[in-house]
Structure formats: C-alpha cells, structure tokens
Sequence to fold (231 residues):
Amino acid sequence: AQKITQTQPGMFVQEKEAVTLDCTYDTSDQSYGLFWYKQPSSGEMIFLIYQGSYDEQNATEGRYSLNFQKARKSANLVISASQLGDSAMYFCAMREGGGNYGQNFVFGPGTRLSVLP
Amino acid sequence: NAGVTQTPKFQVLKTGQSMTLQCAQDMNHNSMYWYRQDPGMGLRLIYYSASEGTTDKGEVPNGYNVSRLNKREFSLRLESAAPSQTSVYFCASTRTAGTNYGYTFGSGTRLTVV
Fold:
C-alpha cells in the first residue's frame, strides 16, 4: 500500500492566488515527520517545510504553510500569493520513527504545479 | 557551501560501459542514499548506507553497486550500463535517527545510456 498519496498529478493556479497541494499519508507510528520538497525544472530538490507529528501548530515558512490534520492523516501544502517561480514539481515525504533507518523515508509521486500569468 | 556534492552532473554512456557516480557530504551525516528518478515514477531508492561501514539494497538495486568509502563519501557504480539505467540520479544524506531530520539532496546526475 502507498504510504504517501498525492492525488493531483497536475495543478494550475493563477499568479497571485493561493493553491493547496494535497498529501495523505499512512503510518502506524506515533512519531513521524512530514516534509515537502520542491523540484523546479532545473532538477534540484529543495526542502520547503517540515511538520512533526507532535507539533500542535501548523508549520509555516514564508509563503508556505502546511495544513496538518492528524486525524485525517493529511498534510496539505498551501502556497499563498503564487509566483511564476513556483511552477515546479512538489513532493510530499514522510519519515517514520520506527523501522529500518534506511527505508523509513518515503516520497509521494509528486504534483506538478503550473502558475499562469 | 555545506551540503551534498554529486559528480558528474551529466554523463552519456554506451551500453556496456561502466562508470561511478560520486557523492560527498560535509554535514557529518551518518546516513546516505542513492535514488533514481524517472519520469512519472517519483524517486526510487537504489541503495543506502545507514552508517559508515554498512550498505543495503533499496527498491531497485539490480545493475548497481555501492561503496561507503568513509563517513563523507558514498559512490554508486554501474558495472555494465544498460539503456534502462537512463535516469536522473540523486544522492541524499541525513542524520540516522530523528523524525525531524529530512534529506539534503545533491544536485543530481543526468545519465543517458545509448
């Protein structure tokens, strides 16, 4: 079973508008971390934001915020005031507290966001 | 700048040729990883090294070997390249334990096997 699900293969948003990228996860661990990475067309993987499973407040980093709903096991990324430079692939990832250290970090399939002028 | 350095950035190989992708990190991370990324398939784990002196297979290890040379360096070797190994390869590192530590990625190697 997929541990990270991103149901939107592609999304479009108008410049200056907000957009939400969906991510749901599956784990039986109590301790885990959730991450979002951005991959622009240049190819590098850029860390955006982190949310811990015990964090009571939603994480924010500038224009990025993470809408964390623990009971629903969702960790949606919200980008406010979209910019053309936000056009990229976005990956949701989870690191679990248990299990094999080498394989406790899992990625979703990604969502390609296109910002329209 | 601190981070993960991958070389080369681009490579074209002929089928059957061998090559080694190099990766080095200077963040004192224990764990290092090699992933491949193919269009529409996200990131797939090839091999990892949870700590210096250990290596283990990931999801797609066939056709690859790795060496954890020391704590800083983790190389990926293609002994006899095949067109199916055309991909973008990423090296990553992190602390071994702690769910609040994510990956730091290298800039990637775009490999084409003809």
